[in-house]
Design brief:
Number of helices: 8
Helix content: 40-55%
Largest sheet: 3 strands, antiparallel
Shape: globular
CATH class: Mainly Alpha
Number of strands: 3
């Protein structure tokens, strides 16, 4: 599978014990994590959305089945689940993410695509704490350190920047409210 971040039509300290900047994953590290770290197709789909769409973990967890159109290859992040709840974002799904989503055979036909276990229902969807645990186990399996759920968003934004995409266009895809907040990613 191709894990290069593609354009849609000073070193910061690595994260340690919850502090510092989340690590930016190389395409080789991402491939290793997806192919050898994650155990379930659900987890590959979840973190694939974060990696290939540059979304926050909370945004991915709150996606509902009606937000994903596999036939058109589009994911819609409704403004109600985005940080600040200001703007809806819609992104095309590349071939690798589409494949990861298609492999997720247990994806519900309606409701949250990453539902919580029946006994652990608080919001109806998998919690960010559980997502962190899943990621930690996958990273431990492949020996990656300094990775957090935010690493996938940072990797996406950094990948677009390295491809010479304009900051204004990156801001549009990433959903940042201001150029100042986006520039913190690009300067790191």
């Amino acid at each position: 599978m191709d894990f290069e971040i593609k354009k849609p039509k000073s070193k910061a300290a690595r994260k340690q014990n919850g502090s510092g900047k989340a690590r930016v994953l190389s395409s080789d590290e991402a491939r290793e994590l997806f192919e050898g770290g994650f155990v379930r197709d659900r987890d590959r789909a979840l973190f694939g959305i974060c990696y290939f769409c540059g979304c926050r973990i909370g945004e991915a967890l709150q996606l509902k089945r009606e937000n994903i159109d596999l036939k058109l290859g589009v994911i819609t992040f409704p403004k109600g689940i985005t940080k600040g709840k200001i703007q809806t974002r819609q992104l095309e799904v590349g071939a690798t993410l589409l494949q990861l989503l298609e492999w997720y055979e247990e994806m519900p036909s309606q409701g949250y695509i990453f539902p919580a276990h029946a006994k652990a229902v608080k919001n109806g969807y998998l919690s960010t704490v559980q997502a962190h645990r899943i990621l930690r186990a996958a990273c431990d399996t492949v020996g990656l350190e300094g990775v957090s759920t935010h690493s996938f968003r940072r990797s996406y934004i950094t990948g677009l920047w390295k491809q010479k995409m304009s900051p204004w266009k990156i801001k549009q895809f990433s959903g940042h409210k201001s150029m100042a907040s986006l520039m913190e990613y690009l300067e790191a």
